[in-house]
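Re: the 134-residue chain
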Amino acid sequence: MPFRIHWHEAEEILEVSYPAAPTQPEVDEYARAIRARIDALGGRRWACLVDQREVGAMPPEIVEVVADLNAYAQQHGMRRAARVVSSAVARLQSTRLVREAMLRTEFRVFESREEAMEWLEAPGPTSTIPPRSR
């Protein structure tokens, strides 16, 4: 099953669901399709929900693409981002990805889609990334 992209008009949330075992052609098509969808938003402010529970921890070939897409999204209106994961490894990977990309967008990781949607729909800033331990 390929990546699924859905726009929630009323909430202004772009939702993406990752497949369990994406192929390189699927990743390439996803990158093209999501950039086109972001461009169609015309720079307005929006939020993003990424459900990666099916894929678990992302394979290395996806991580680089996702990092680039996060930077692109931030430059094109993404105000807040939530990732839904199914494991501690995926949680750590998501947090590390955001830190290394030095994104300024509000970001949180959740284990449930419902909690992620609730946070995305809530107004106001919140703590986005836990402080780096020393």
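Residues 126-134 have pLDDT under 50 and may be disordered.
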